[in-house]
Amino acid sequence: MGDGSRETVQILIKQRIALIARRWSTRASRLFKAYGFTNAQRAPLHLLKHAPQGLTQSELADGLQLSEPTLSRRVTRLLADGLVSKHRLPGDGRANLIKLEPAGLKALDGSETTAALDRELLFQGLSNEDLEAALRVLDVLAARMEDPLESEIEAEAEITAV
């Protein structure tokens, strides 16, 4: 790589990830509008499908990496639409257990067909090797972002700011 090109590519990757995340979310919301929910409302349904015993609101918020107030608003809408149900957790009256209802499963399964077709369209022409390489890079970046900022980076930022 020529002078500065690694830094340029890193910046372009960061920008593309942010752009793709916004576009994917917007696209998914348009796709799922026909099913009566947004992509943000669909995400809890997807998690609940894989937890037939249900999840507490706290577990659901953690799984979606959302604050509990944000999740609470989404659950309220899903409850009103009959897609999920809320029950007191046995043995802990303070916690609520959220369960996927048959109507939620039906809506989710219907929307998954649409999502699968859309993914096929978006990933068309990319080899399995391309996808695996992209996933490895994204996994490394995601794992590194879970760690607190390194003390060396923080120290460097303080020195640069002075």
> Globular, elongated, flat, extended or rod-shaped: what is the shape?
globular
Unreliable stretches covering 5 or more consecutive residues: none
Distance between the termini: 32 Å
Radius of gyration, CA atoms, in whole angstroms: 20 Å
List keywords for this structure.
mainly alpha; 162 residues; 7 helices; single chain; three-stranded antiparallel β-sheet
Describe the structure.
By secondary structure, this protein is mainly alpha-helical. The protein contains 7 helices and 3 strands, in the order ααβααββααα. A 3-stranded antiparallel beta sheet has the order 1-3-2. β2 and β3 form a beta hairpin. The protein is globular.
Short structural summary:
The chain has 162 residues and is mainly alpha-helical. The protein has helices spanning 5-32, 39-49, 57-64, 68-80, 102-123, 128-146, 151-161, and strands at 55-56, 84-89, 92-100. The model has no long low-confidence stretch (mean pLDDT 88).
